[in-house]
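Case study 2.
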Amino acid sequence: MTTLTYNIGNPGHVTLGIFDPIGRVVADLVNDTVIPGEYAETWNASGFADGIYYCRLSADNITKINKVLVLK
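Prediction:
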């Protein structure tokens, strides 16, 4: 399990998803309208193969992508 934290400065629609190396969505963690604040989402990767995944956060017309390494 891993916890992904993020801050939102303006109210608006937020999406947070996990993608495999070829761009397929493997987990949708957030797809909602939120108010400003700090948030934390937990991703349980126990059912996923070891390897690199990508976490994509989109909010306020900004998209940020980070690598997530799954090792068991």
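The chain has a mean pLDDT of 94.
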